[in-house]
Design brief:
This is Ubiquinone/menaquinone biosynthesis C-methyltransferase UbiE. It is an enzyme of class 2 (transferase). The protein is 49% helix and 20% strand. By secondary structure, it is α/β, with parallel strands linked by helices. It has a 7-stranded mixed sheet with strand order 3-2-1-4-5-7-6, sandwiched between helices. Strand 1, helix 4 and strand 2 form a beta-alpha-beta unit. It starts with a helix and ends with a strand. It binds S-adenosylmethionine. S-adenosylmethionine binds next to helix 1.
Length: 240
Amino acid sequence: THFGYENVAEAEKARRVADVFDSVASRYDLMNDLMSGGMHRLWKTFAIAQSGVTTGSRVLDVAGGTGDLSLAFAKRVGPTGQVWLTDINNSMLTHGRDRLVDKGIMTPVAQCDAEKLPFPDEYFDCVTVAFGLRNMTHKELALAEMQRVLRPGGRLLVLEFSQVWKPLAPLYDFYSFKIIPRIGQLVTQDEASYRYLAESIRVHPDQETLKSMMEGAGLERVEYFNLMLGVVALHRGFKF
Ligand code: SAM
């Protein structure tokens, strides 16, 4: 076709990601707890501790899904702050919004692609993306957009699966390729989506590569923190 191979492959990836999250949305929170043994809550708490977010801050939660981070940030920023829960996927976002409303939190919600954020330049004090960058087709573009909407002095936090400490890799591969798809099958009747999850982790840039990508997008003083021996890494960068 005149779109060329690359665009067909990219469209295919975007469609696959949409199918995965449409399929898992209703069981997403339960699966997170099961797969990580509840650890994802600690990883998110760690990210929030590095955010510098306080009363009155403006926060953008990119690929926010069912809203874990938005919920925690909304409590922090109080009535004078703003937290935007955003995601490309309507099923995930609907669950997120309902969950926040059930907890009495009326935070703005927007369905949008991280690669084309509908916000003005230099608007946010903090932008976060947790377990979302991995699914994006043009990661450089998404990082550049997140940098664009940050105010000078603002922070970008990227929480994502990363490269685990080498000696642990065989065990980790066994867990992610054999155990997780089984749990996925039992809980969501969807083994394929959880196999996709394991594969997407394997091809995601490692700690140093992601650090360079963030620097390439204009972020400064970029550093990362390995959590659980690199199963997850939190990258933090500033805009100046
Ligand atoms: N941040 C939440 C959390 O940590 O629980 C949800 C993470 S979930 C694994 C990944 C999310 O990324 C999905 O809700 C998916 O729809 C979203 N996503 C994937 N590609 C995206 C894009 N290009 N723009 C915005 N969101 C995207």
